[in-house]
Amino acid sequence: MPLRLSFVIPVLNGERFIARCLEHLRRESVPEDQIIVVDNGSTDRTTAIVRGTPGTTIVEAPGVTIAALRNRGAGLATNDVLAFIDADCLLCPGWRASVERVLADPAVTATGAYYDIPLDATWVERAWWSFRPRHEHRTSFLISGNFVVRRDVFAALGGFDEHLVTDEDTDMSRRLVAAGAVLVEAPAVRVVHLGNAKTLRQFFGKERWHATSIVAATRVHRIDRPMLLTFVFMATCALALAAVPLGLRGYGAAAAVVALVLVAPGVTAAYKVVTHRNYRYFFQLLPLYLIVYVVRTMVVVGALLRRSPSRN
Questions:
Q1: Which of 103, 140, 159, 298 could be a cystine partner for 71, CB 3.0 to 4.6 Å?
Q2: Which of 7, 137, 5 is nearest to 70 (CA)?
C-alpha cells in the first residue's frame, strides 16, 4: 500500500505560483492523499484558483503566523504523514518515490531537502543555494517549505511554535532532534523554489523578514553558530568604528576596517564553499553574508533598544 500523505500548503497572495504548485503536487500524489491549502487572507485570485482545483481543500486563517497556518492544516490532516510544501515550490519528478524510500525505514521521523533553483536563476539565487547537499545524510535541520514528517511525532511536540514569525523550522528541527527523532536530508526529495530573492535588494528584504524571530528563538534555545557569528560581526564592526577616533589614517587603516567588517561574512562564506566544494561562489557569497549579518545585527540591536528602560 502506498504511503498516504497529507499535504499542507500555506499561502498569502500566491496567485503567481499556486496553480503550478498544485499541478506539480498532483503529479506526485495518489488518490488517498489530502491536499490542504491554508490561506492567510489573500486579496488576489489565490482562493479562486485553489477552489477551482479538484481534490483540494482550502481553509482560511487570516492574520496569523506562517507557523499557525501550517498547524491549522496539520490539524485537519487524517493521514499518517504530513508534507509541508510552500506555495511557491514545485515538486519534481521522483519526489514521492524518494519520500517513500526514506520513510520506509521506521527509524526515520522526517525528511526533506533544501530548495533547488529554476533554470533562469540569477547569480544571487545560484550563489545562495550553492550549498544544496548532493548526498543523502542525517541532519539536524530541515527547511519547512519542503518538510515531510510523521504526524504522530509532530503532534506530540505540539506542532510549530506559533509565536515565531519566522524560523519555525529551526525551532521544530531542534525539538525533533532533542526528542530523539532521526531527520534525513535527501536531495532526491527535490522541489524547485520560484520565490527566491533575485536581486540584492530583494535579498535584503527577505533576510530582514527571516531574521525577525532570531532573538525569540535564541531565548528558547542555546546560542547557535549563526547567532555566535552575529555577535562576532557586531564586535568586529565596533572595533572598526573605534579605528576612527583613534586617528588611524591611510590605506592601511581603510584595509583594516574592511577586513574587520568582513571577518564573519568571510568565515561563513569560506565554510560554505569548502564544505560543499563550490569554491567559485566565495566572492558572490561574501556580499550576501555581509547583508545577512547586517540584518541580524539590526534585529539584535533593535531588540536591545526595546528592552532598555524608557527615557523620561
A1: 159
A2: 7
